[in-house]
Design a protein that fits this description.
Radius of gyration: 20 Å
Shape: globular
CATH architecture of the domain at 89-286: Roll
Largest sheet: 6 strands, antiparallel
Oligomer: single chain
Strand content: 5-15%
Number of strands: 10
Number of helices: 9
CATH topology of the domain at 89-286: C8orf32 fold
C-alpha cells in the first residue's frame, strides 16, 4: 500500500442512475455506510478484511484510474515504481500523568492526521454502525496495527477507542449533510465534552471540518463553527444528526446511538436550533446516570471474535430516530462564486 496515501482527491462526477438520491441516502445511513457515494462520486469498501485480497486490490486501482484526472498515468507510475519511499508508521499517543485533557485530545488528533486521509476511493476498514461497541473497538485496534489512511467514519471509531481511558471526556457522534451544486455530501466527526466545554476529533479533506479544540461553551457554538466552515466552501448545511454519549467500556455490547436528534438546520430559525441543541445536551447529561448493560464474559467475548474474521452482525436497532420540528427556513449568507455547474467541491 505504500504511496496510496499520496493520491490527491478524485475529480469528476459519476451520477447515480437507479432510484432517488434522497432515498438511497437514507438507506445507506441506516446501514452505516454513509459515504458509499460521496457527492455523486461512488467509492468502494474493502469487505474482505486485511490483508487486502487480490480482487479488491485490482478493483481499487481500476477505480483510481477512473476517478483521478491523471488516473492511468498515476496507476502506471506508482505500480511500476521500484523505489517508493518507506511510509513512516505513526505511534499511538502516550501521556504523562500531568498531561491535560486538551493536550491529550490534540495528541490524538495529531495521530489521526498522521494516518492521512484516504484518497484511493476504497475504504480499507468496513464500519457497520449496527455492530456492538466491542466489535467496533476490534476494528479500531486493527487500524492502529495497520496504520492505513482512513476516512471520517473510521476516524470516529478510532477516536472513541483512543479516548476510552479518559473517563472525564464524554464522546458523541456528530454528523452533517450538506449540498453543493445539486449533490449531497455526508460527513461525521466525534464530538467531545469535558470541563464544561465542547470540541471534536475527526478526519476530513478540509482542515476546518475535522478537529475543534475543547473551547466551545455550548453545542450550539460548536455546530455554528462547522456551519461557518461549510459556507466557506459554498456548501449549504441541511441536516445535523447528533448521537448520545458513548460508553467508555471497550467490551460493551451496546450499540452506538448515532442519531438521537435529527435537525433540519436550514428550516430552523437560530433560536429554534439553539433550543433543540440545548434539549439534546440535557438528554446526553441524563444518560450519564443511567446503568449500562453488563459486558460479556471473557469466554463470550472470545466466541464473538473480530468483525474482520466473523460474519455475524446484529441487525436489531436499539435507538429510535426522533425527528425534530422544523421552523421557518433560515437564510444562510454564502460567498459569491462563479458558475460552478458540474463542478464539485468535496469536503
Amino acid at each position: 500500500v505504500p504511496g496510496l496515501c499520496w493520491l490527491p482527491g478524485g475529480g469528476g462526477m459519476l451520477r447515480a442512475t437507479v432510484g432517488s438520491v434522497e432515498e438511497r441516502d437514507e438507506e445507506q445511513e441506516d446501514e452505516g455506510e454513509e459515504e458509499l457515494r460521496d457527492g455523486g462520486v461512488p467509492f468502494y469498501v474493502n469487505r474482505g478484511g486485511l490483508p487486502v485480497d487480490e480482487e479488491t486490490w485490482e478493483r481499487m486501482w481500476r477505480h483510481v484510474a477512473r476517478i483521478h484526472p491523471n488516473g492511468e498515468a498515476l496507476w502506471k507510475e506508482i505500480r511500476g515504481a521500484t523505489d517508493l519511499p518507506k511510509i513512516p508508521v505513526p505511534s499511538v499517543p502516550t501521556y504523562q500523568p500531568t498531561t491535560t485533557i486538551p493536550q491529550r485530545l490534540e495528541a490524538i488528533q495529531k495521530y489521526i492526521r498522521e494516518l492521512q486521509y484516504n484518497h484511493t476511493g476504497t475504504q480499507f476498514f468496513e464500519i457497520k454502525k449496527s455492530r456492538p461497541l466491542t466489535a467496533l473497538m476490534d476494528i479500531a485496534k486493527e487500524m492502529t496495527r495497520e496504520a492505513l489512511p482512513i476516512k471520517c467514519l473510521e476516524a470516529v471509531i478510532l477516536g472513541i477507542y483512543l479516548t476510552n481511558n479518559m473517563p472525564g471526556v464524554e464522546r458523541f457522534p456528530l454528523s452533517f449533510k450538506s449540498q453543493f451544486s445539486g449533490n449531497h455530501f455526508h460527513h461525521i466527526v466525534l464530538g467531545v465534552h469535558s470541563g464544561g466545554r465542547f470540541g471534536a476529533l475527526g478526519m476530513s479533506r478540509r482542515e476546518d471540518l475535522m478537529f475543534k479544540p475543547l473551547e466551545f461553551r455550548t453545542l450550539m457554538d460548536l455546530v455554528q463553527e462547522y456551519d461557518g466552515a461549510y459556507r466557506g466552501y459554498w456548501h449549504t448545511l441541511h441536516k445535523v444528526k447528533i448521537g448520545q454519549y458513548v460508553s467508555h467500556d471497550p467490551h460493551s455490547v451496546e450499540q452506538i446511538e448515532w442519531k438521537h436528534s435529527i435537525l433540519d438546520v436550514d428550516k430552523l430559525t437560530k433560536e429554534e436550533l439553539r433550543k433543540e441543541l440545548e434539549r439534546h445536551t440535557r438528554d446526553m447529561r441524563l444518560k450519564i446516570g443511567k446503568p449500562v448493560p453488563p459486558s460479556p464474559t471473557k469466554d463470550r467475548r472470545n466466541s464473538m471474535g473480530s468483525p474482520l474474521r466473523g460474519p455475524g452482525s446484529p441487525i436489531r436497532r436499539i435507538s429510535r430516530v426522533e425527528r425534530r420540528p422544523s421552523g421557518e427556513k433560515k437564510v444562510l449568507e454564502q460567498k459569491s462564486s462563479a458558475d460552478m455547474n458540474g463542478y464539485q467541491i468535496r469536503v
